[in-house]
Amino acid sequence: MHPLQCVLRMQRCQRWGPLASVSWVLLRTCRAHSGLPSTACSSPERQQEDGVWKDFSSRLATGPTFQHFLRNASVPQEKPSSEVDDPPPYLTVDELSGRQRKVYLETYGCQMNVNDTEIAWSILQKSGYLRTSNLQEADVILLVTCSIREKAEQTIWNRLQQLKVLKSKRLRSRVPLKIGILGCMAERLKEEILNREKMVDILAGPDAYRDLPRLLAVAKSGQQAANVLLSLDETYADVMPVQMSPSATSAFVSIMRGCDNMCSYCIVPFTRGRERSRPVASILEEVRKLSEQGLKEVTLLGQNVNSFRDTSEVQFNNAVSTNLSRGFSSNYKTKQGGLRFAHLLDQVSRIDPEMRIRFTSPHPKDFPDEVLQLIHERDNICKQIHLPAQSGSSRVLEAMRRGYSREAYVELVHHIRESIPGVSLSSDFIAGFCGETEEDHFQTVSLLQEVQYNMGFLFAYSMRQKTRAYHRLKDDIPEEVKLRRLEELITVFREEATKANKAFVGCTQLVLVEGLSKRSATDLCGRNDGNLKVIFPDAEMEDVTNSGLRVRAQPGDYVLVKVGVLSCF
After folding, report:
1. Where are the beta strands (DSSP E) in 146-196?
2. 318 and 353 part of one domain
């Protein structure tokens, strides 16, 4: 995948001279990040009682009784997060405890996987595990994986080969290293991973993170363990994700899981299951806590975030369905009732006027006028919309089962720009989908030229097993043609994005400071309302909240920056 964007650089004056032509004002400072757990911890002595695991294998072989499954077959009831499940009959509470074993987590793929990592860590932390950033001292290594295309999975296979060396060195130690595969790759490949790589000890699909303590307890006995069951109701609504970086200024908040769109190229419905949404109340509670901790930006997450539909409150289940964008259709029957995305966005934006609100990833079909009007009206809802097109050819869009034509998509773009003046747009594109002709490709090129996106994510098509395309279409575009078309799309995107983003040059932008620039230790970086990166000197500036005081901007501060230079990559 190629994330493409432009960087706005601050207008500079004479080197080392005063920044006379630059407007730089510190608007307010971030509150202290309180309440975030520290990962620093003294290394405890590893002591194990003799005989704790003596009869474990025999009890595991005996397994639960039939009555155990009958007892647990009732309709699941939501219970307070403080309430602890009874251990399975073949494990004791002590065996489920992490006993301060150290966990090393690696995240691959999309923002949902970042949030999943925080959920998994929250669950393990409550079970007595410690987190480490040192791979060498880890007792457990968990990889949160992606399956969106073949390259993403190959990255994990390569990483496992590297970890195999580390694990072989630990076989002779008193505490053998355990390795787990979490997320979409575990869900897609299942036992193939365990059969191919005997070094993998556990598998946990996206809906099985609550089961991690049990899986690790089973693996500790020397057996492989897996849970890749998909759920119709799991949203982790009662699990408060633990931020991986205590100094973070922004956070992801998952509001729904799964996808019902069934686009022909997409593996997501098969790795993350059907759509289900969190209760609005639980989302608002999480956002409030993040605001209290001093975070200044939240991104609402979902595979199809704007099709959010909370049906947890009975009184709203008879509400009418939300209208689709004009000219768009869905691959499933229109769903009735529930609290919709516009309601959630309204409530979230009211929690903290100083907290920016973003959302991703939406589907173009789910942009009714009430959502667009809300984005226009609320100052803290960012004027930036991700609008995945995937192709500029109506024929290819039909093969992809996207539910719209090129003409309907372009009409929606015009409507969004009329409704939200100055909005920034980003998109996704696939090069070389099944049956794509040169004319289809040129249609995509022309769409890039017509819309002039501010940001883009472009990649070559990678066929995935289980998808509709795998069963009904032919992956007939040679790899070299896919890559050539991809490069052509990237080139055109950069040209058009440069034109679009030139509008920022000479303008003053409100920027949320993220930290030091990766390119220069003397510069800071942040993002404007349109999610474009802005780089500016780390120098003293006026604090408008305290007249006459000059301070340096810190992560979490808002500053006003006058843009002087534009660069794209």
Report:
1. 178-183
2. yes
- Number of compact structural domains in the chain: 4
pLDDT: is 336 or 355 the higher one? 355
Residue type, 343: H
C-alpha–C-alpha distance, residues 426 and 236, integer Å: 29
**Which pTM does this prediction carry?**
0.84
In a domain, 61, yes or no: no
Residue with tokens 């529930």: 338
Using CB atoms within 10 Å of the CB of residue 132, give its burial: 0 to 12 exposed, 13 to 18 middle, 19+ buried: buried
Locate 280 and state its tokens.
């609005």
Residue 247 has phi, psi (to 5 degrees) of -95, 10
> CB-based contacts of 60: which residues, under 8 Å, 6+ apart?
90, 218, 221, 223
Q: Taken in order 55, 60, 63, 64, is the CA torsion positive or negative?
A: positive
Going by pLDDT thresholds of 50, 70 and 90, the confidence category of residue 48 is: very low
Query: For residue 81, what is the DSSP state?
Result: T
Which of 556, 553, 493 shows the shortest CA–CA distance to 355?
Answer: 556
Q: How far apart are alpha carbons 447 and 129 in whole angstroms? A: 50
Write out the residue range of the structural domain in which residue 517 sits: 505-563
Residues 191, 128 share a domain: yes
